[in-house]
Amino acid sequence: MAAVLRKLIQGRLPALAGVLCRRSGNEGHLFLNSSGSTLMQPRCGYSSPTESVIVEMDKATGVALLKLNIPPVNSLSLPLLTELAIVLDKLEMDKHCRGLILTSAVPNIFSAGLNLFDMMDKPNEHYSEFWRAVQEIWIKLYGSSLANIAAINGSSPAGGCLLALCSDYRIMANNPHFTIGLNETRLGIVAPFWYDILQWRVHHPPPCLHLFVMALVFRLHVHHPSAMTKVTRAYSTELKISVSYVKQPINWRSHEIYK
Ligand SMILES: CCCCC/C=C\CCCC/C=C/C(=O)SCCNC(=O)CCNC(=O)[C@H](O)C(C)(C)COP(=O)(O)OP(=O)(O)OC[C@H]1O[C@@H](n2cnc3c(N)ncnc32)[C@H](O)[C@@H]1OP(=O)(O)O
């Protein structure tokens, strides 16, 4: 998985597909479509370009790779949010799935944030539905029982940044052209209160959080089962702290605990 992440953050997605393919014996790729059905792929490959969320399941590790795939900028439209919610539900229910990596299939862009056209010239019912879909993604990602990592392989302004913040851990490509942050405040759009909580979690990680990620890498790496056992045994307390930290239930009133 470490190699997988390294390749992801270098933006070499085709190479990544090859890595997963080799490790899963050419039969580990599952594709979920918005209706929730899964299709086994007999060989390494990508789903059709019309799929807005491509899912590649590596059966050997139980890691699902989710690639947002709505060019040109992966803006979070109602259809994309809906499809992502269905995919997250499916993975949550899949007993073989242990973790997920959220990334982008669009070169140089992770996500441009909320779709601006979903926020203008629409009836009030649309705004309600849209905002419900936005919050649902936050709840599903942040509340997921799966280990989840955002591999930010491109620019990620506004809601794209918030999407990444919903993950347990973030790794971003080291590219000066990639931007991330809350530029939407310039448009007068205010991030919701729970952004503050997500932000605290990122800015004040416990020292053992990186250890958690390392252990995660080992745990999911079936080729090093003995190393995995050693790490998890040796650092079991730190692991528990890290897991409870990233999976901490949110209570707005008690969020002072982050300070
Ligand atoms: C769902 C997650 C859960 C957590 C959510 C939490 C909280 C809720 C959100 C709270 C507040 C968030 C608000 C927002 O997200 S508002 C959206 C703000 N986004 C932006 O301002 C991004 C603006 N876009 C850019 O900065 C750039 O486009 C770029 C992403 C850096 C890419 O640059 P570049 O490669 O140069 O592409 P272009 O600028 O030429 O854009 C290509 C076409 O894409 C259209 N576009 C860009 N962004 C959006 C967008 N957000 N929505 C819809 N369409 C977008 C752009 O107009 C171009 O279209 P054209 O080719 O037809 O002109």
TrEMBL record:
InterPro entries associated with the record: ClpP/crotonase-like_dom_sf, Enoyl-CoA_hyd/isom_CS, Enoyl-CoA_hydra/iso
Catalytically driven reaction(s): (3Z)-decenoyl-CoA = (2E)-decenoyl-CoA; (2E)-tetradecenoyl-CoA = (3Z)-tetradecenoyl-CoA; (3Z)-hexenoyl-CoA = (2E)-hexenoyl-CoA; (3Z)-dodecenoyl-CoA = (2E)-dodecenoyl-CoA
Cellular component, GO, one term: mitochondrial matrix
Predominant cellular place of this UniProt entry's protein: mitochondrion
Involved pathway(s): Lipid metabolism; fatty acid beta-oxidation
Pfam families: ECH_1
Alphabetically ordered keywords of this record: Acetylation, Fatty acid metabolism, Isomerase, Lipid metabolism, Mitochondrion, Transit peptide
Source species, domain of life: Eukaryota
Recorded GO MF terms: delta(3)-delta(2)-enoyl-CoA isomerase activity
Record GO biological process: fatty acid beta-oxidation
Compartment annotation: Mitochondrion matrix
Function description: Key enzyme of fatty acid beta-oxidation. Able to isomerize both 3-cis (3Z) and 3-trans (3E) double bonds into the 2-trans (2E) form in a range of enoyl-CoA species, with a preference for (3Z)-enoyl-CoAs over (3E)-enoyl-CoAs. The catalytic efficiency of this enzyme is not affected by the fatty acyl chain length.
Subunit structure: Homotrimer.
Recorded family membership: Belongs to the enoyl-CoA hydratase/isomerase family.
Protein name per UniProt: Enoyl-CoA delta isomerase 1, mitochondrial
